[in-house]
Amino acid sequence: MAKHKKRKLQGNLHKPSKSASKPDSLKSSSKPKVARAAHKSQPTIPFQPEDRILLVGEGDFSFAKSIVEEHGCCDITATSYDSKEVLYQKYDPQAKEHVSYLEEEGQTVLCGVDATKLEKNKNLTKSGELFDVILFNFPHVGGKSTDVNRQVRFNQELLVNFFKAAINLLAASGTIVVTLFEAEPYTLWNIRDLARHSGLEVQRSFKFLADAYPGYSHARTLGNIEGGGGWKGEDREARSYVFQKKGEKGAIKTGHVNAKRKRQEMDSDNEDDR
């Protein structure tokens, strides 16, 4: 009996499958569905290579390095809250390597930059040029308190002060992009409302995909953790929020949505990519 079943299975290998026997008209009808599925998986990149970009709160500068090396960005000012000495201690050895790469590529690296006082930093304002994109990935005040409510309040204050400072350096039709994890306590910060109270409006939001930035790794506020710590930021669900000045209709900086969808996103701040 066992041998008979084996021969039957072998015989079935030579029979045409149901899909192979379908008419050509039915085969072709399934192709658009495959194309749409592939389209949805494309990452959204909220800037263009030629944009003048300000990166705020960089950790080990791996994100800055990636957008220059992999996305061809050529006018980057990458900043860190830490002094250069502290930066190199916290993120040894990769921070020094990343900074060296950026400087060799002619990009600007600034340390000791407070995200809440950007408009007062002479290194950012002396040229008089404004930025097309100001991007702050995973802002966090650090371990100021173990109390969740106080942590939420501290981080809300950080974001509000950042928004109010950044808006002064934003070019006409420019955008501010902030990326947060999609989990508590980050969802408790109510970032959309904070932005609205700071003179901004939501243009859109989309899932942040770390894989879109080869070489990027999420840097913890505390610095390198032996063994990598209990989790990797690159593996966690995250969302990027794109803001613009109230009343402005800036162009959506991405090549992954069609013209019809662009218009829909401009008309509603509730239109999110999934």
Provide a concise account of the structure shown.
This protein is 33% helix and 18% strand.
Any descriptors?
about 270 residues; 10 helices; about 35% helix; disordered N terminus; methyltransferase
Kindly describe this structure.
The longest helix is centred in the middle third of the chain and has 19 residues, at 148-166. This protein has 274 residues and is an alpha/beta fold. The model is unreliable at 1-31, 34-39 and 255-271 (pLDDT under 50). 33% of the residues lie in helices and 18% in strands. Strand 4 (131-137), helix 8 and strand 5 form a beta-alpha-beta unit. Strands 3-2-1-4-5-7-6 form a seven-stranded mixed β-sheet. It is built from ten helices and seven strands. It has helices at residues 2-12, 24-29, 31-40, 62-69, 84-90, 94-104, 122-125, 148-166, 191-196, 259-267, and strands at residues 53-56, 76-80, 108-111, 131-137, 170-181, 200-207, 238-245. Residues 1-43, 253-274 are annotated as: Disordered. Residues 54-220 form the 25S rRNA (uridine-N(3))-methyltransferase BMT5-like domain. This is 25S rRNA (Uridine-N(3))-methyltransferase. One of its GO terms (molecular function) is rRNA (uridine-N3-)-methyltransferase activity. Keywords: Methyltransferase, Transferase.
Report the C-alpha radius of gyration, rounded.
Answer: 23 Å
Shape: globular
**Helical/strand content category:** alpha/beta
Number of strands: 7
Considering DSSP H and I runs of 4 or more, what fraction of the residues is helical? Answer: 25-40%
On the 0 to 100 scale, the average pLDDT is 81
Largest sheet: 7 strands, mixed
Q: Which consecutive residue ranges, at least 5 long each, have pLDDT under 50?
A: 1-31, 34-39, 255-271
Strand content: 15-25%
Q: Write the H/E string, N to C.
A: HHHEHEHHEHEHEHEEH
Termini gap: 52 Å
Query: What's the helix count?
Result: 10
Query: Strand order across the biggest sheet?
Result: 3-2-1-4-5-7-6
